Amino acid sequence: MSNLIEQLIQQGYLKTPEIINAFYKIKRKDFLLPEFQEEAEANYPLPIGFGQTISQPLTVAFMFELLQPKKGDKVLDIGSGSGWTSALFAEIVTDQGKVFAIDIIPELVEFGKENVRKYNFVEKGIVEFICGDGSKGLAKEAPFDKIHVAAAAAKIPQALLDQLKIGGRLVIPVGVEVQDMVLIEKIGEKKYKEKKYPGFLFVPLITK
Fold first, then answer.
1. Does 82 participate in catalysis according to the annotation?
2. The domain containing residue 92 runs over which residues?
3. In this structure, is residue 7 part of a structural domain?
4. What is the tally of structural domains in the chain?
5. Residues 96, 18 contacting (CB under 8 angstroms)
6. 48 close to 121: Cβ distance less than 8 angstroms
7. Taking Cα atoms as reference points, which of 42, 47, 127 lies closest to residue 83?
8. Packed helices 2-10 and 57-67: angle between N→C axes, nearest 10 degrees
9. Hey, is 104 helix, strand or coil?
10. Is the pTM of this model over 0.90?
């Protein structure tokens, strides 16, 4: 994975020291099905079962750089899948922060939890896994500093905008066949700044 990380740094996708450090520390291989572990270094999505994938490292790097997670942040990780992004967030927010990992597929919640346990983040209480509809967010734990959505929505769910802290950031792929990566910054009670980056492909966000 270190060669791939160096490539992402050289190409300008990874810039922030804390994010780079997390990429080095949290091994993508630990979040893959056994038959795909040889491809951990590959810069493309890989299947994790149930029609879902672990995202392309370049895409994860891009989303993390947009989100700018910090030590002490409260993060909502929607479509947590393999648990890789949840563990990356946990490494960055440390035990001063908290990551709520949510997935709608019970088997993937278990898979993600087992993978994240390899780093003791579950035992330390830094990452909590929830089985549920991520499009509704997690109102009882809101507001969040950062919300990361790893599946495509046709439009941005209002619940996620409402559950973002003022000064917080939300990154979500929006679109049906091809997605724009949308960065939302909450700048006031009902005020948002929006920036779009075109040309992404994600599995759809499953809702109930």
1. no
2. 2-200
3. yes
4. 1
5. no
6. no
7. 127
8. 60
9. coil
10. yes
Catalytic residue among 55, 80, 82, 86: 55
Q: How many residues does the chain have?
A: 208
The token pair that represents 163 in the structure block? 């559950």
88 and 26 Cβ atoms separated by less than 8 Å: yes
Residue 207 lies in a domain: no
Asked, for residue 58, whether it belongs to a domain, the answer is: yes
pLDDT by 10s per residue, the chain, length 208: 679 999 999 999 999 999 999 999 999 999 999 999 999 999 999 999 999 999 999 999 999 999 999 999 999 999 999 999 999 999 999 999 999 999 999 999 999 999 999 999 999 999 999 999 999 999 999 999 999 999 999 999 999 999 999 999 999 999 998 999 999 999 999 999 999 999 998 988 988 7
Q: What CATH number should be reported for the domain holding residue 108?
A: 3.40.50.150
Asked whether residue 206 is assigned to any structural domain, the reply reads no
Cis peptide bond N-terminal to 143, omega within 30: yes
